[in-house]
């Protein structure tokens, strides 16, 4: 954390320390608090805490699931690079999806703060989530733009920074689903890979479900910045519980999927 209010790095980059053939174990020591600007008030990532489930045996995968996991890990390993045209275009597309008709004055601009980035250069906030966190935000903004439409009244009293919250959700899902391990070590992770083998957009869809679930938890708890960790923990518990229900055969069966139509 930068004591001067520098950019937020939720954790060390997700693929750091990940090597083929080795499982990756995160510890709470790897969690880094956010900037003094507002994350220091309690809005920090709680996603890399060690869980008892880390000690569970790995699950065998079908060839199709192994291929899907490999492609997923390839996505996770891509760091955001502001010098790449593809990444620049994705960032511009995110702005266009969030604010159609409003011209973006530059990839480094005070305008980004309107979306919930900490500073005028959003690339500094992608360090914890990589390029996949931008892809997730873009997918969400294009398909479910309502959360980007800031509302007046009570909701505004408890608003959270949309963009950086989204980066945290990406990281939380990668950790919860054990996607950096050679094989999933939890039933939640193994269950998700079945969905991923059937739907290549499963991670992006689950991201949207999770964002909507988190937003619902945030409003129900009348949360503030100081409550962000509690909201994320509650979101993760609810999501894990739903993924383990016996009658869930696809993501659309999750109870929280209904939030997408609200």
Automatic annotation (TrEMBL):
Protein name: ELMO domain-containing protein
Pfam families registered for this protein in UniProt: ELMO_CED12
Organism for this UniProt entry: Escallonia herrerae
Residue span, ELMO domain: 86-243
Alphabetized InterPro entries for the sequence: ELMO_dom, ELMO_domain-containing
């Amino acid at each position: 954390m930068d004591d001067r209010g520098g950019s937020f790095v939720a954790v060390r980059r997700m693929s750091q320390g990940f090597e083929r053939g080795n499982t990756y174990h995160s510890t709470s020591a790897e969690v880094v608090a956010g900037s003094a600007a507002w994350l220091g008030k309690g809005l920090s990532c709680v996603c890399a805490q060690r869980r008892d489930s880390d000690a569970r045996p790995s699950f065998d995968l079908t060839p199709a699931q192994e291929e899907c996991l490999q492609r997923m890990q390839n996505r996770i390993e891509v760091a955001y690079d502001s010098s790449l045209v593809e990444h620049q275009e994705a960032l511009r597309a995110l702005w266009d999806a969030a604010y159609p008709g409003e011209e973006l004055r530059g990839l480094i601009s005070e305008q980004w703060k309107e979306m919930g980035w900490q500073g005028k250069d959003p690339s500094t906030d992608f360090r914890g989530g990589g390029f996949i966190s931008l892809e997730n935000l873009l997918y969400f903004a294009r398909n479910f733009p309502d959360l980007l439409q800031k509302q007046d009244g009570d909701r505004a009293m408890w608003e959270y920074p949309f963009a950086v919250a989204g980066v945290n959700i990406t990281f939380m899902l990668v950790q919860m689903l054990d996607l950096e391990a050679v094989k999933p070590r939890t039933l939640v992770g193994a269950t998700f890979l079945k969905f991923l083998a059937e739907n290549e957009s499963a991670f992006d869809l689950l991201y949207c479900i999770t964002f909507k679930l988190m937003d619902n938890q945030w409003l129900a708890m009348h949360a503030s910045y100081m409550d962000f960790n509690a909201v994320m923990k509650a979101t993760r518990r609810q999501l894990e519980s739903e993924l383990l229900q016996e009658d869930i055969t696809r993501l659309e069966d999750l109870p929280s999927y209904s939030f997408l139509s609200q």
